[in-house]
């Protein structure tokens, strides 16, 4: 079936979700595949412009996560309504939601990019430009519709919000015609300054995140070293405790042995004392016997002395 001279929607969708580095080769392949069956469509495909990396990130959001872009569009309508009616509390609440939604969308864009092209994780993605484009979509219904199409070829530079002048935008529309809206030198300079400021803010945020990551890693290393030292101290204390327990056991055994030896010496002392008492009694008995024998000898001697001498 002829496409009526327009690039087939499925081809456009596939090309604008490819990493920009693969766009030209894929477009050439699509032109060659379509030329024989639909020359007009092949010419339309050949006119499709390669997106910048920032535009590719926004297109990924629109084509892979249209639900998130729908939420952005809904929030933009609420913001414009609150702004026109000068509802301060509602504006403050919606502004808080705006920041959260934009941050979430930027993070999701980065995740989609890394999933589509892992090499993107090693490079510096233009997330500040993505943030500026999404902020512009919050400010203008037409820009929101263009973001929603998933066919941007260049990011929007404007980073404000509210009813704003039309920012410079490049888009592949339904008829595949690429158009640039008029711009003035002063507006371009202002957008450039805002873009640089947004890039500086993103760079400062990345630097702060890097510092926080380094500080966390340093703290983790310090705590790991302290934990290792604490474990070593615990092991040393456990070894000291084991040695002290063994020494205590040995001392208790020595005390028990001393008590056993003391009891044995007490038994021997009592036996020796009994033996001494018995021998004292025997000595006294012997002394009495000696005294009796001496008296008897004296008596016998006296009798002998009184006897007359033989004649």
Describe the structure in your own words.
The chain has nine helices and two strands. The protein is mainly α and 311 residues long. It has a domain at 51-183. Helix 5 (66-84) packs antiparallel against helix 6. The protein starts with 8 loop residues before the first helix and ends in a 5-residue tail after the last helix. 23% of the residues are buried.
Treating each run of at least 4 consecutive H or I residues as one helix, how many helices? Answer: 9
- Describe the strand arrangement of the main beta sheet, using strand numbers: 1-2
Determine Rg (CA atoms, Å): 54 Å
Q: What percentage of amino acids are in beta strands?
A: under 5%
Name a few traits of the molecule:
311 residues; rod-shaped; single chain; mainly alpha; 9 helices; 2% strand
In short:
The protein has 9 helices and 2 strands, in the order H-H-H-H-H-H-H-H-E-E-H.
Which helices and strands occur, and which strands form pairs?
Layout: H1 9-17, H2 20-35, H3 39-46, H4 53-64, H5 66-84, H6 88-116, H7 127-139, H8 141-149, E1 152-154, E2 170-171, H9 185-306
Antiparallel strand pairs: 1-2
